[in-house]
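Figure 2 data, in text form.
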Amino acid sequence: MENNTLLDEQKELDQIINRKNKLQTYKELNIDPFGQKFEVTYHASDIFEKFKYLKEEEICEIEEIKIAGRIVSLRKMGKASFFHIKDKSGKIQCYIKMDVVGEENYKLFKMADLGDIVGINGHAMKTKTGEITIRVSKFTHLTKALRPIPDKFHGLSDIEIRSRKRYLDLISNEQSMYIATTRPKIIRCLQSFLDNLGYTEVETPVFNSILGGASARPFITHHNALNQDFYLRIATELPLKRLLVGGMERVYEIGRLFRNEGIDQSHNPEFTTVELYQAFGDLSDMMWIAENLIRTLAQKIRNSTTIEWGGNQIDVSKPFKKATMVELIKEKINVDFIKVKTDAEALKLAKKYDVPVEKHFTYGHVVNAFFEKYCEEDLIQPTFVMGHPIEISPLTKKDNKDPRFTQRFELYINKKEIANAYTELNDPIDQKERFLEQLREKNKGNEEANEMDEDFIEALEYGMPPAGGMGIGLDRLIMFLTSTEQIREVILFPTLKHKQAK
Protein backbone atom coordinates (compact mmCIF):
# COMPACT_ATOMS: atom_id res chain seq x y z
CA MET A 1 0.00 0.00 0.00
CA GLU A 2 2.83 2.38 0.89
CA ASN A 3 4.57 1.67 -2.43
CA ASN A 4 1.34 2.42 -4.33
CA THR A 5 1.00 5.71 -2.47
CA LEU A 6 4.56 6.69 -3.35
CA LEU A 7 3.94 5.81 -7.01
CA ASP A 8 0.76 7.92 -7.05
CA GLU A 9 2.61 10.85 -5.48
CA GLN A 10 5.44 10.57 -8.03
CA LYS A 11 2.93 10.36 -10.88
CA GLU A 12 1.18 13.49 -9.62
CA LEU A 13 4.51 15.30 -9.27
CA ASP A 14 5.45 14.39 -12.85
CA GLN A 15 2.14 15.78 -14.10
CA ILE A 16 2.65 19.03 -12.19
CA ILE A 17 6.11 19.45 -13.71
CA ASN A 18 4.76 18.72 -17.20
CA ARG A 19 1.95 21.26 -16.79
CA LYS A 20 4.30 23.94 -15.47
CA ASN A 21 6.55 23.39 -18.45
CA LYS A 22 3.64 24.34 -20.73
CA LEU A 23 3.36 27.80 -19.19
CA GLN A 24 6.21 29.18 -21.28
CA THR A 25 4.63 27.83 -24.47
CA TYR A 26 1.39 29.69 -23.69
CA LYS A 27 3.35 32.89 -23.16
CA GLU A 28 5.18 32.41 -26.46
CA LEU A 29 1.74 32.16 -28.10
CA ASN A 30 0.87 35.47 -26.41
CA ILE A 31 -1.75 33.72 -24.24
CA ASP A 32 -2.01 34.51 -20.53
CA PRO A 33 -2.09 31.04 -18.91
CA PHE A 34 -4.11 32.38 -15.97
CA GLY A 35 -6.86 34.52 -17.25
CA GLN A 36 -8.84 36.75 -19.50
CA LYS A 37 -12.47 37.81 -19.70
CA PHE A 38 -14.82 35.49 -21.53
CA GLU A 39 -18.44 36.32 -22.32
CA VAL A 40 -20.73 33.45 -21.26
CA THR A 41 -24.17 33.26 -22.88
CA TYR A 42 -25.20 29.72 -21.87
CA HIS A 43 -24.72 27.19 -19.12
CA ALA A 44 -24.82 23.45 -19.71
CA SER A 45 -28.35 22.99 -18.32
CA ASP A 46 -29.63 25.82 -20.56
CA ILE A 47 -28.25 24.09 -23.64
CA PHE A 48 -29.81 20.73 -22.76
CA GLU A 49 -33.20 22.37 -22.23
CA LYS A 50 -33.22 24.70 -25.24
CA PHE A 51 -31.88 22.27 -27.85
CA LYS A 52 -33.53 19.02 -26.76
CA TYR A 53 -35.74 19.27 -29.88
CA LEU A 54 -32.77 18.53 -32.18
CA LYS A 55 -32.84 15.29 -34.15
CA GLU A 56 -29.88 12.92 -34.36
CA GLU A 57 -26.95 14.45 -36.31
CA GLU A 58 -28.83 17.77 -36.57
CA ILE A 59 -26.91 21.04 -35.89
CA CYS A 60 -28.43 24.38 -34.94
CA GLU A 61 -26.40 26.81 -37.06
CA ILE A 62 -28.58 29.83 -36.28
CA GLU A 63 -27.45 30.58 -32.75
CA GLU A 64 -23.87 30.69 -31.45
CA ILE A 65 -23.19 29.27 -27.99
CA LYS A 66 -20.59 30.74 -25.64
CA ILE A 67 -19.91 28.60 -22.60
CA ALA A 68 -17.03 28.31 -20.12
CA GLY A 69 -16.07 25.55 -17.71
CA ARG A 70 -13.50 23.06 -16.50
CA ILE A 71 -12.37 20.13 -18.66
CA VAL A 72 -13.40 16.98 -16.78
CA SER A 73 -12.89 14.37 -19.50
CA LEU A 74 -10.61 14.41 -22.51
CA ARG A 75 -10.37 12.07 -25.49
CA LYS A 76 -7.71 13.44 -27.85
CA MET A 77 -7.52 11.89 -31.29
CA GLY A 78 -5.97 12.81 -34.62
CA LYS A 79 -7.90 15.61 -36.28
CA ALA A 80 -11.11 15.35 -34.21
CA SER A 81 -11.57 14.95 -30.46
CA PHE A 82 -14.21 14.81 -27.74
CA PHE A 83 -14.09 16.36 -24.28
CA HIS A 84 -16.51 17.34 -21.52
CA ILE A 85 -16.56 20.64 -19.71
CA LYS A 86 -18.30 21.25 -16.40
CA ASP A 87 -19.84 24.51 -15.22
CA LYS A 88 -22.03 25.30 -12.21
CA SER A 89 -25.06 23.61 -13.78
CA GLY A 90 -23.46 20.36 -14.91
CA LYS A 91 -21.29 18.95 -17.67
CA ILE A 92 -21.68 18.83 -21.44
CA GLN A 93 -19.84 17.12 -24.27
CA CYS A 94 -17.85 19.11 -26.83
CA TYR A 95 -16.71 17.97 -30.27
CA ILE A 96 -13.75 19.72 -31.87
CA LYS A 97 -12.46 19.20 -35.45
CA MET A 98 -9.30 20.68 -36.90
CA ASP A 99 -10.95 21.52 -40.21
CA VAL A 100 -13.59 23.57 -38.34
CA VAL A 101 -11.46 25.46 -35.80
CA GLY A 102 -8.26 25.64 -37.85
CA GLU A 103 -4.85 24.05 -37.31
CA GLU A 104 -3.51 26.65 -34.82
CA ASN A 105 -6.62 26.55 -32.63
CA TYR A 106 -6.59 22.75 -32.69
CA LYS A 107 -2.94 22.74 -31.55
CA LEU A 108 -3.98 24.99 -28.67
CA PHE A 109 -6.65 22.47 -27.72
CA LYS A 110 -4.07 19.64 -27.89
CA MET A 111 -2.11 21.44 -25.12
CA ALA A 112 -5.10 21.19 -22.77
CA ASP A 113 -5.07 19.00 -19.68
CA LEU A 114 -7.81 17.66 -17.44
CA GLY A 115 -8.81 20.43 -15.05
CA ASP A 116 -8.01 23.34 -17.37
CA ILE A 117 -10.68 26.03 -17.49
CA VAL A 118 -11.64 26.93 -21.06
CA GLY A 119 -14.09 28.94 -23.11
CA ILE A 120 -16.01 27.45 -26.02
CA ASN A 121 -17.70 29.11 -28.99
CA GLY A 122 -19.84 26.73 -31.00
CA HIS A 123 -23.22 25.40 -32.01
CA ALA A 124 -25.54 22.83 -30.47
CA MET A 125 -25.82 19.45 -32.18
CA LYS A 126 -27.14 16.00 -31.35
CA THR A 127 -24.90 13.00 -31.96
CA LYS A 128 -25.88 9.63 -33.45
CA THR A 129 -26.30 8.33 -29.90
CA GLY A 130 -28.69 11.16 -29.05
CA GLU A 131 -26.35 13.21 -26.84
CA ILE A 132 -26.62 17.00 -26.93
CA THR A 133 -23.13 18.22 -27.81
CA ILE A 134 -21.39 21.48 -28.67
CA ARG A 135 -19.63 21.49 -32.03
CA VAL A 136 -16.69 23.78 -31.30
CA SER A 137 -15.96 26.65 -33.66
CA LYS A 138 -13.37 28.29 -31.38
CA PHE A 139 -11.42 26.97 -28.38
CA THR A 140 -10.17 29.54 -25.84
CA HIS A 141 -7.70 28.73 -23.07
CA LEU A 142 -8.63 30.55 -19.85
CA THR A 143 -6.82 29.04 -16.83
CA LYS A 144 -4.10 26.39 -16.61
CA ALA A 145 -4.62 23.80 -13.87
CA LEU A 146 -1.16 22.99 -12.53
CA ARG A 147 -2.40 20.07 -10.46
CA PRO A 148 -4.42 17.14 -11.87
CA ILE A 149 -8.01 16.85 -10.65
CA PRO A 150 -9.35 13.53 -9.28
CA ASP A 151 -10.84 11.46 -12.09
CA LYS A 152 -14.23 9.78 -11.91
CA PHE A 153 -12.68 6.38 -11.13
CA HIS A 154 -10.16 7.48 -8.51
CA GLY A 155 -12.02 10.56 -7.32
CA LEU A 156 -12.51 11.79 -3.80
CA SER A 157 -14.38 9.30 -1.64
CA ASP A 158 -12.77 9.89 1.76
CA ILE A 159 -15.08 12.29 3.58
CA GLU A 160 -12.15 13.74 5.55
CA ILE A 161 -10.30 14.73 2.37
CA ARG A 162 -13.52 15.93 0.73
CA SER A 163 -14.23 18.20 3.71
CA ARG A 164 -10.69 19.61 3.77
CA LYS A 165 -10.53 20.15 0.01
CA ARG A 166 -14.10 21.16 -0.72
CA TYR A 167 -13.04 22.75 -4.01
CA LEU A 168 -11.96 19.33 -5.30
CA ASP A 169 -15.08 17.74 -3.85
CA LEU A 170 -17.28 20.17 -5.80
CA ILE A 171 -15.38 19.40 -9.00
CA SER A 172 -15.53 15.63 -8.55
CA ASN A 173 -18.85 14.89 -6.87
CA GLU A 174 -22.19 15.91 -8.36
CA GLN A 175 -23.98 15.29 -5.06
CA SER A 176 -21.72 17.78 -3.28
CA MET A 177 -22.49 20.44 -5.89
CA TYR A 178 -26.19 19.59 -5.59
CA ILE A 179 -26.10 20.12 -1.80
CA ALA A 180 -24.10 23.35 -2.12
CA THR A 181 -26.57 24.84 -4.59
CA THR A 182 -29.67 23.46 -2.87
CA ARG A 183 -28.78 24.88 0.55
CA PRO A 184 -29.41 28.54 -0.47
CA LYS A 185 -32.64 27.49 -2.21
CA ILE A 186 -33.86 25.99 1.08
CA ILE A 187 -32.96 29.19 2.92
CA ARG A 188 -34.78 31.33 0.34
CA CYS A 189 -37.89 29.14 0.63
CA LEU A 190 -37.73 29.36 4.42
CA GLN A 191 -37.42 33.14 4.30
CA SER A 192 -40.34 33.39 1.89
CA PHE A 193 -42.47 31.17 4.13
CA LEU A 194 -41.83 33.31 7.22
CA ASP A 195 -42.01 36.62 5.34
CA ASN A 196 -45.47 35.65 4.07
CA LEU A 197 -46.55 35.13 7.68
CA GLY A 198 -45.55 38.69 8.54
CA TYR A 199 -42.18 37.97 10.13
CA THR A 200 -39.29 40.46 9.89
CA GLU A 201 -35.75 39.15 9.43
CA VAL A 202 -33.22 40.80 11.77
CA GLU A 203 -29.58 40.53 12.84
CA THR A 204 -28.29 40.37 16.42
CA PRO A 205 -24.75 40.39 17.88
CA VAL A 206 -22.38 37.43 17.67
CA PHE A 207 -20.39 38.71 20.70
CA ASN A 208 -22.23 38.32 24.00
CA SER A 209 -20.98 39.50 27.38
CA ILE A 210 -23.32 37.06 29.20
CA LEU A 211 -23.82 33.36 28.52
CA GLY A 212 -27.49 32.66 27.87
CA GLY A 213 -30.26 31.52 25.56
CA ALA A 214 -29.36 27.82 25.63
CA SER A 215 -27.49 25.19 27.61
CA ALA A 216 -24.09 24.79 25.98
CA ARG A 217 -20.37 25.32 26.51
CA PRO A 218 -19.21 28.54 24.86
CA PHE A 219 -16.17 29.73 22.94
CA ILE A 220 -14.56 32.69 24.67
CA THR A 221 -12.69 35.50 22.93
CA HIS A 222 -11.10 38.74 24.10
CA HIS A 223 -11.67 42.27 22.79
CA ASN A 224 -8.40 44.18 23.19
CA ALA A 225 -9.75 47.75 23.00
CA LEU A 226 -12.41 47.09 25.65
CA ASN A 227 -10.13 44.73 27.58
CA GLN A 228 -13.14 42.45 27.99
CA ASP A 229 -13.91 38.78 27.39
CA PHE A 230 -16.90 37.91 25.22
CA TYR A 231 -18.73 34.68 24.44
CA LEU A 232 -19.40 33.74 20.84
CA ARG A 233 -23.16 33.37 20.92
CA ILE A 234 -24.65 29.96 21.66
CA ALA A 235 -28.16 31.18 20.76
CA THR A 236 -29.94 34.25 19.39
CA GLU A 237 -32.88 33.92 21.79
CA LEU A 238 -32.41 36.70 24.34
CA PRO A 239 -31.76 39.62 21.93
CA LEU A 240 -34.68 38.50 19.75
CA LYS A 241 -37.00 38.52 22.78
CA ARG A 242 -35.83 42.06 23.55
CA LEU A 243 -37.19 43.00 20.13
CA LEU A 244 -40.61 41.66 21.16
CA VAL A 245 -40.45 44.00 24.16
CA GLY A 246 -39.73 46.82 21.70
CA GLY A 247 -42.86 46.06 19.70
CA MET A 248 -41.52 43.98 16.79
CA GLU A 249 -44.25 41.38 16.96
CA ARG A 250 -42.84 38.71 14.62
CA VAL A 251 -39.08 38.39 14.15
CA TYR A 252 -36.60 35.78 12.97
CA GLU A 253 -32.87 35.47 12.44
CA ILE A 254 -30.84 33.04 10.37
CA GLY A 255 -27.51 33.05 12.16
CA ARG A 256 -24.31 31.22 12.98
CA LEU A 257 -24.00 29.83 16.49
CA PHE A 258 -20.88 28.54 18.23
CA ARG A 259 -20.79 25.77 20.84
CA ASN A 260 -17.57 24.40 22.28
CA GLU A 261 -18.64 20.80 22.05
CA GLY A 262 -17.85 17.56 20.24
CA ILE A 263 -18.00 16.78 16.53
CA ASP A 264 -20.03 13.86 15.18
CA GLN A 265 -22.48 13.00 12.40
CA SER A 266 -25.00 15.63 13.49
CA HIS A 267 -22.88 18.15 15.45
CA ASN A 268 -20.42 20.81 14.30
CA PRO A 269 -19.09 23.50 16.70
CA GLU A 270 -20.05 26.22 14.21
CA PHE A 271 -23.55 25.76 12.86
CA THR A 272 -26.59 27.67 11.58
CA THR A 273 -30.06 28.04 13.04
CA VAL A 274 -33.18 30.01 12.35
CA GLU A 275 -34.84 31.36 15.50
CA LEU A 276 -38.27 32.97 15.33
CA TYR A 277 -40.56 34.63 17.88
CA GLN A 278 -44.24 35.48 17.60
CA ALA A 279 -45.89 37.92 19.99
CA PHE A 280 -49.36 36.90 21.21
CA GLY A 281 -48.66 33.30 20.18
CA ASP A 282 -47.76 30.12 22.05
CA LEU A 283 -46.47 26.59 21.55
CA SER A 284 -49.37 25.63 19.27
CA ASP A 285 -48.40 28.35 16.78
CA MET A 286 -44.83 27.07 16.68
CA MET A 287 -46.10 23.54 16.15
CA TRP A 288 -48.18 24.68 13.17
CA ILE A 289 -45.24 26.58 11.68
CA ALA A 290 -42.79 23.70 12.13
CA GLU A 291 -45.07 21.13 10.52
CA ASN A 292 -46.20 23.29 7.61
CA LEU A 293 -42.74 24.73 6.96
CA ILE A 294 -41.15 21.28 6.68
CA ARG A 295 -44.00 20.00 4.50
CA THR A 296 -43.73 23.07 2.24
CA LEU A 297 -39.94 22.75 1.92
CA ALA A 298 -40.20 19.06 1.07
CA GLN A 299 -42.69 19.80 -1.68
CA LYS A 300 -40.72 22.71 -3.14
CA ILE A 301 -37.22 21.25 -2.84
CA ARG A 302 -37.88 17.54 -3.43
CA ASN A 303 -41.28 17.71 -5.11
CA SER A 304 -42.42 15.04 -2.65
CA THR A 305 -43.64 14.68 0.92
CA THR A 306 -41.79 11.37 1.33
CA ILE A 307 -38.02 11.62 1.65
CA GLU A 308 -35.51 8.81 2.18
CA TRP A 309 -33.11 9.63 5.00
CA GLY A 310 -30.69 7.27 6.66
CA GLY A 311 -32.37 4.21 5.22
CA ASN A 312 -35.85 5.28 6.38
CA GLN A 313 -38.74 6.66 4.34
CA ILE A 314 -39.84 9.81 6.17
CA ASP A 315 -43.43 10.85 5.46
CA VAL A 316 -44.21 14.50 6.24
CA SER A 317 -47.64 14.49 4.60
CA LYS A 318 -49.46 13.24 7.72
CA PRO A 319 -49.97 15.16 10.98
CA PHE A 320 -46.85 14.81 13.11
CA LYS A 321 -47.05 12.56 16.17
CA LYS A 322 -47.25 14.29 19.58
CA ALA A 323 -46.09 12.74 22.88
CA THR A 324 -44.61 13.89 26.19
CA MET A 325 -41.24 12.74 27.49
CA VAL A 326 -42.80 10.85 30.38
CA GLU A 327 -45.30 9.14 28.04
CA LEU A 328 -42.49 7.93 25.78
CA ILE A 329 -40.46 6.67 28.75
CA LYS A 330 -43.45 4.81 30.18
CA GLU A 331 -44.23 3.35 26.74
CA LYS A 332 -40.65 2.08 26.34
CA ILE A 333 -39.67 0.78 29.80
CA ASN A 334 -42.87 1.09 31.86
CA VAL A 335 -41.45 3.71 34.27
CA ASP A 336 -44.02 6.43 35.10
CA PHE A 337 -42.25 9.62 36.15
CA ILE A 338 -45.56 11.35 36.82
CA LYS A 339 -45.77 9.19 39.97
CA VAL A 340 -42.16 9.98 40.98
CA LYS A 341 -42.34 12.87 43.46
CA THR A 342 -38.81 13.48 44.77
CA ASP A 343 -35.24 13.90 43.54
CA ALA A 344 -34.20 10.93 45.65
CA GLU A 345 -36.75 8.64 43.97
CA ALA A 346 -35.60 9.79 40.53
CA LEU A 347 -31.93 9.25 41.33
CA LYS A 348 -32.72 5.81 42.72
CA LEU A 349 -34.43 4.88 39.43
CA ALA A 350 -31.43 6.18 37.49
CA LYS A 351 -29.17 3.84 39.43
CA LYS A 352 -31.55 0.90 38.89
CA TYR A 353 -31.71 1.48 35.13
CA ASP A 354 -28.03 2.33 34.77
CA VAL A 355 -28.70 5.90 33.60
CA PRO A 356 -25.61 8.14 34.09
CA VAL A 357 -26.10 11.15 36.38
CA GLU A 358 -24.04 14.22 37.28
CA LYS A 359 -23.61 16.04 40.60
CA HIS A 360 -26.20 18.72 39.81
CA PHE A 361 -28.91 16.28 38.66
CA THR A 362 -32.37 16.57 40.15
CA TYR A 363 -35.75 15.09 39.11
CA GLY A 364 -35.98 16.85 35.75
CA HIS A 365 -32.42 16.08 34.70
CA VAL A 366 -33.06 12.39 35.39
CA VAL A 367 -36.24 12.41 33.28
CA ASN A 368 -34.29 13.92 30.38
CA ALA A 369 -31.47 11.39 30.81
CA PHE A 370 -33.97 8.49 30.68
CA PHE A 371 -35.51 9.96 27.52
CA GLU A 372 -32.13 10.34 25.81
CA LYS A 373 -31.04 6.79 26.69
CA TYR A 374 -34.24 4.90 25.94
CA CYS A 375 -36.48 6.93 23.62
CA GLU A 376 -34.52 9.03 21.10
CA GLU A 377 -33.52 6.00 19.03
CA ASP A 378 -37.19 5.20 18.29
CA LEU A 379 -38.14 8.62 16.90
CA ILE A 380 -37.99 7.95 13.16
CA GLN A 381 -41.15 9.60 11.79
CA PRO A 382 -41.70 13.30 12.66
CA THR A 383 -42.55 13.53 16.37
CA PHE A 384 -43.18 16.49 18.65
CA VAL A 385 -41.69 15.52 22.02
CA MET A 386 -43.35 17.72 24.65
CA GLY A 387 -43.43 18.22 28.42
CA HIS A 388 -39.78 18.97 29.15
CA PRO A 389 -38.81 19.28 32.83
CA ILE A 390 -38.37 22.79 34.18
CA GLU A 391 -34.73 22.14 35.14
CA ILE A 392 -33.67 21.88 31.49
CA SER A 393 -35.97 24.66 30.25
CA PRO A 394 -34.91 27.90 32.01
CA LEU A 395 -36.60 30.21 29.48
CA THR A 396 -39.92 28.41 29.11
CA LYS A 397 -43.36 28.89 30.65
CA LYS A 398 -44.46 26.27 33.18
CA ASP A 399 -47.13 23.72 32.38
CA ASN A 400 -50.29 24.97 34.10
CA LYS A 401 -51.28 21.40 35.03
CA ASP A 402 -47.93 20.30 36.47
CA PRO A 403 -45.29 22.97 37.29
CA ARG A 404 -42.51 20.37 37.16
CA PHE A 405 -42.82 20.54 33.38
CA THR A 406 -42.88 23.27 30.74
CA GLN A 407 -44.71 24.26 27.57
CA ARG A 408 -42.00 23.11 25.21
CA PHE A 409 -41.46 20.71 22.35
CA GLU A 410 -38.53 19.28 20.43
CA LEU A 411 -39.23 18.02 16.93
CA TYR A 412 -37.42 14.79 16.08
CA ILE A 413 -37.00 13.28 12.63
CA ASN A 414 -34.99 10.09 12.16
CA LYS A 415 -33.62 10.24 15.75
CA LYS A 416 -32.32 13.79 15.28
CA GLU A 417 -33.61 16.95 16.95
CA ILE A 418 -34.64 19.35 14.19
CA ALA A 419 -36.46 22.07 16.14
CA ASN A 420 -36.91 23.29 19.71
CA ALA A 421 -39.86 25.51 20.68
CA TYR A 422 -41.40 27.16 23.74
CA THR A 423 -44.30 29.10 25.01
CA GLU A 424 -41.94 31.83 26.12
CA LEU A 425 -41.45 32.79 29.75
CA ASN A 426 -42.31 36.49 30.07
CA ASP A 427 -42.66 36.73 33.87
CA PRO A 428 -39.57 38.68 35.07
CA ILE A 429 -39.89 37.39 38.66
CA ASP A 430 -40.05 33.74 37.57
CA GLN A 431 -37.30 34.33 35.02
CA LYS A 432 -34.96 35.74 37.66
CA GLU A 433 -35.54 32.72 39.88
CA ARG A 434 -34.78 30.42 36.94
CA PHE A 435 -31.50 32.28 36.33
CA LEU A 436 -30.63 31.95 40.02
CA GLU A 437 -31.25 28.21 39.81
CA GLN A 438 -28.97 28.08 36.76
CA LEU A 439 -26.24 29.82 38.78
CA ARG A 440 -26.67 27.22 41.53
CA GLU A 441 -26.23 24.49 38.91
CA LYS A 442 -23.11 26.23 37.54
CA ASN A 443 -21.64 26.26 41.07
CA LYS A 444 -22.26 22.50 41.25
CA GLY A 445 -20.30 21.96 38.04
CA ASN A 446 -22.79 22.39 35.19
CA GLU A 447 -20.62 24.15 32.59
CA GLU A 448 -23.63 24.58 30.27
CA ALA A 449 -25.80 26.52 32.75
CA ASN A 450 -27.00 30.03 31.88
CA GLU A 451 -25.66 33.13 33.62
CA MET A 452 -27.74 35.90 35.18
CA ASP A 453 -28.77 38.42 32.52
CA GLU A 454 -29.91 41.47 34.50
CA ASP A 455 -30.54 43.54 31.37
CA PHE A 456 -32.90 40.87 30.03
CA ILE A 457 -34.76 40.80 33.36
CA GLU A 458 -35.08 44.59 33.16
CA ALA A 459 -36.44 44.32 29.62
CA LEU A 460 -39.07 41.83 30.79
CA GLU A 461 -40.06 44.23 33.56
CA TYR A 462 -41.16 46.69 30.86
CA GLY A 463 -43.48 43.97 29.60
CA MET A 464 -42.98 41.31 26.93
CA PRO A 465 -46.21 40.10 25.31
CA PRO A 466 -47.16 36.43 25.57
CA ALA A 467 -45.22 34.70 22.82
CA GLY A 468 -44.21 31.50 21.12
CA GLY A 469 -40.65 30.93 19.95
CA MET A 470 -38.73 28.29 18.05
CA GLY A 471 -35.20 27.44 16.95
CA ILE A 472 -34.61 25.16 13.96
CA GLY A 473 -31.26 23.52 13.28
CA LEU A 474 -30.84 24.61 9.68
CA ASP A 475 -27.95 22.25 8.92
CA ARG A 476 -29.93 19.23 10.14
CA LEU A 477 -33.00 20.38 8.22
CA ILE A 478 -30.84 20.58 5.07
CA MET A 479 -29.48 17.11 5.83
CA PHE A 480 -33.04 15.81 5.80
CA LEU A 481 -34.11 17.67 2.66
CA THR A 482 -31.01 16.49 0.73
CA SER A 483 -30.98 12.94 2.18
CA THR A 484 -27.53 13.52 3.69
CA GLU A 485 -26.30 11.62 6.74
CA GLN A 486 -23.24 13.67 7.77
CA ILE A 487 -23.54 17.29 8.89
CA ARG A 488 -20.13 18.08 7.40
CA GLU A 489 -21.61 17.29 3.96
CA VAL A 490 -24.05 20.22 4.18
CA ILE A 491 -21.51 22.73 5.56
CA LEU A 492 -19.10 23.85 2.87
CA PHE A 493 -16.22 24.32 5.31
CA PRO A 494 -16.85 22.24 8.47
CA THR A 495 -14.64 22.42 11.55
CA LEU A 496 -11.78 19.91 11.27
CA LYS A 497 -8.85 18.89 13.40
CA HIS A 498 -5.63 20.61 12.34
CA LYS A 499 -3.79 18.40 9.88
CA GLN A 500 -0.30 17.53 11.06
CA ALA A 501 2.51 18.12 8.61
CA LYS A 502 4.30 15.00 7.36
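Caption note: The two ends are 17 Å apart (CA to CA).
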